[in-house]
Amino acid sequence: MLNEQDLTSLSLFHGRLDNIDNSKLYSFCLDNIDRFSAPEVSNIFKDTNLHGFAKMPECAEINYVVEGIKQEFEKSFSSMPRLADVWMHINRSGQSTNTHHHVDVGNIEGSPDISAVYYVSTPKGCGRLVFDFPINQYETRRESLDPKEGNFVLFPAHLNHFVTCNTSEDLRVSISCNFYG
């Protein structure tokens, strides 16, 4: 008898959180923009969590986002992920995000399993979320998603991704988090 072990499956999961007050969340993000957005972010990490992200101040709306994503995950997978960290990501006009993943290469065993991004503000032309993943040792595939306010995406934390340039004049605001699966 043969037992199957899938080695090539890679999935993204999309959802929507309708009970989030994005206007309050947006205001909170703007109040903290200098602490959490580039270029200043690189030199202000005096108060960091284990993955090097600035610790988020308490914010009920951010807690609702995290809990909403956790509940949607639990409904689909009958398991509740544990929060590793959470941060906001703000791209001003002309900004993008370089290719990265959320694995701590110095501590692979202690790295998160799942990453999520929730979209607070997504003006037209604000940049796409792009995933790069290997097909084989010679080829990679690229998949991109248009962000939409109120939606979230769950993906494997090891998956390389980036955000294209924000060509709008407005801010692109998202909340990201990592979970242990």
What is this entry, summarized?
By secondary structure, the protein is α+β, with helices and mostly antiparallel strands. The chain has 3 helices and 9 strands.
Protein described:
The chain is of the alpha+beta class. It is 18% helix and 31% strand. The protein contains 3 helices and 9 strands, in the order E-H-H-H-E-E-E-E-E-E-E-E. It has helices at 22-31, 33-36, 60-77, and strands at 13-16, 82-91, 97-100, 114-121, 129-134, 140-145, 151-156, 160-163, 172-180. The strands form 2 sheets. Strands 1-7-4-9-2 form a 5-stranded antiparallel beta sheet. It has a 4-stranded antiparallel beta sheet with strand order 3-8-5-6, with no helix packed on it. A hairpin with a 5-residue loop joins strand 5 and strand 6 (140-145). The chain starts with 12 loop residues before the first strand and ends with a strand. Residues 38-54 have low confidence and may be disordered.
Helices and strands in order:
Elements: E1 13-16, H1 22-31, H2 33-36, H3 60-77, E2 82-91, E3 97-100, E4 114-121, E5 129-134, E6 140-145, E7 151-156, E8 160-163, E9 172-180
Antiparallel strand pairs: 1-7, 2-9, 3-8, 4-7, 4-9, 5-6, 5-8
- Please write the string of helix (H) and strand (E) elements: EHHHEEEEEEEE
Q: Rg, please?
A: 17 Å
Low-confidence stretches: 38-54
Counted by DSSP, the helix tally is: 3
Given helix and strand content, the structural type is alpha+beta
| Biggest β-sheet strands, sense, barrel | 5 strands, antiparallel
What descriptive keywords fit this protein?
globular, alpha+beta, five-stranded antiparallel sheet, 31% strand, 18% helix, 181 residues
